[in-house]
Amino acid sequence: MRKLKFFIAALLAAAVFSFGCGLPCISARAATAKYYIGGMTAGFMLSAGGTEVIGLSEVSAEDGLHRPAEDAGIRVGDTIVAVDGIRIKTISDLNEALERCGGKEVLVAVRRKGDTAEVPLVPVKDKKSGNYKIGVLIRDTLAGIGTVTYIDCNTYRFGALGHAVCDENHNALEVSDPKVYLCSVIGVAKGTRGKAGELRGLFVNETVLAKAENVGETGLYGTFEKGYDFSRCELVEAAPIAEATIGKAIIYSTVDGVCPQKYEIAIVKVDANNKENKNFVIKVTDERLLDETGGIVQGMSGSPILQNGKLIGAVTHVFLNDPTRGYGIGIEHMIGN
Hints:
The protein has 337 residues and is mainly β.
């Protein structure tokens, strides 16, 4: 097992989805198809879109200590995306680019809060390793956690999260490792007014749930392992937003261990025409969930929403000023991706 970093954004990272000239509808096939209800937490690895700077350090050279990156204005949180015009995606890419320079000045393209700029710097030869360095501690992948919403019982296609996959700066991320692991929740930071809570968990490395195939504005999609034991998963039909009503509903979430639990919520608003995938406003009413999490927390994104025995959507975001409330996406915007 390894520690999990949580990055899924709260209310301010709502996905933007274009509906075109009309609302998408659940197809005739989808309306009669059966879906396993998810609710289990899944861990996955995502590309940082370059090498993210997580620390600055000194380089010990023959003539003393140097801080090339810091002196050039590079900061913690920046992402190095290119060196001398050559794209950098991994730590190996960066190391190879620095070796090619042979100690000559290079132009390093750095992304910061969505903006990219080039800064000149001169890599320094480390006297111990003999490698050229610029004095940064970096990473090229991020670990994420989310909740599986559904699995098609015929094709084993799954959908999760219900919103775009992005980092804390709202930069879109790509899947770097197609394996999706079962995640065990070992703790919860409760949500409070003004601060989103989060699930804390560990990857169960030996348990591969599925293969991730693509990410988009409405979540993470792929194919479940055929050997997965679905015997405990409830099988239901999907329903369009048009069938949703204000009133009682339930969600399936995992807030402890690996087993999803059923919790009561209320749908307080239905907006089929919302173009930001905020088709539902929901309120957690289940005292057990309120006691355990304070409401909706990061990591619960993708928790399936059921009403009248049908799958109608997924939890996506929390209200930062009220963790008992949040948004949900209609399932018709997820199925088929």
